[in-house]
Amino acid sequence: MAEPGGARPVSVSDVQQLVRRKDEIEAQIKACYELLEGQKGVGMDEPLVDAEGFPRNDIDLYQVRTARHNIICLQNDHKALMKQVEEALHQLHAREKEKQARDEAEALAEAMSQNQSLAQPFAKVNAVTPGSPASVSGLQVDDEIVEFGSVNVNNFQNLQNIATVVQHSEGRPLSVTVIRGGRSVHVGLTPQRWAGKGLLG
Fold first, then answer.
1. What sign does the CA torsion over 169, 173, 175, 176 have?
2. How many CB atoms lie within 10 A of CB 49?
């Protein structure tokens, strides 16, 4: 995701680079102040002329002026840099927050779809006769039935519901959803007459 203006997004190493640059500037400012200290403690504001208005001869005027000028420039650079650091950190945090929000939304969506796909079962397969329509469709013992044609946990009252659906669907494929090993599995089941009892087995 690029920042507005097509610039590439700020990375952690960009921020580290800015911080290193800030440390360098601070070290340079400190060195300039030390230089001023070395000139009889002349700070940023002490006069550079004596009582008669002549340039002071007890200090190196050129060095003092240069150091003062450098300090002003460096402080401006420092201020601008601090602003950059702040903006970069804001961008990083905003992106981090966005990513976190996205991750949370995705996790939530996944949990929701898991819940939907793992709807509540209302019956359990306790036997499947070999060679029966149920066996041919791939139904297995211990499959937990979530949907059997139009029957689901919301409208299931008793096994008679399933028997009714089976009778009405003879020879037609029924959509059956089961939970097997913690996963949702769809099975196409066609109730029909076979060698054994009933239409399913």
1. positive
2. 10
**Residue type at 151 in one-letter notation:** V
Between CA 151 and CA 160 the distance in angstroms is 11
Phi, psi of 174 (to 5 degrees): -110, 140
Question: Which single residue is written with the structure tokens 């981090």?
Answer: 96
Counts of helices then strands in the chain (DSSP H, E): 4, 5
Q: Which helix (H) or strand (E) holds 187?
A: strand 183-189
Query: What string of DSSP letters covers 66-114?
Result: HHHHHHHHHHHHHHHHHHHHHHHHHHHHHHHHHHHHHHHHHHHHHHHHH
The residues pairing with 90 across neighbouring beta strands, listed in sequence order, are none
Rounded Cα gap, residues 108 and 90, in angstroms = 26
Per-residue pLDDT of the chain (201 residues; tens, 9 = 90+): 444 555 678 888 898 999 999 999 999 999 999 999 988 888 898 899 888 989 998 899 999 999 999 999 999 999 999 999 999 999 988 988 999 999 898 888 877 766 555 677 788 888 888 888 788 888 888 888 888 888 887 888 887 888 888 888 788 888 888 888 878 888 878 878 877 677 666
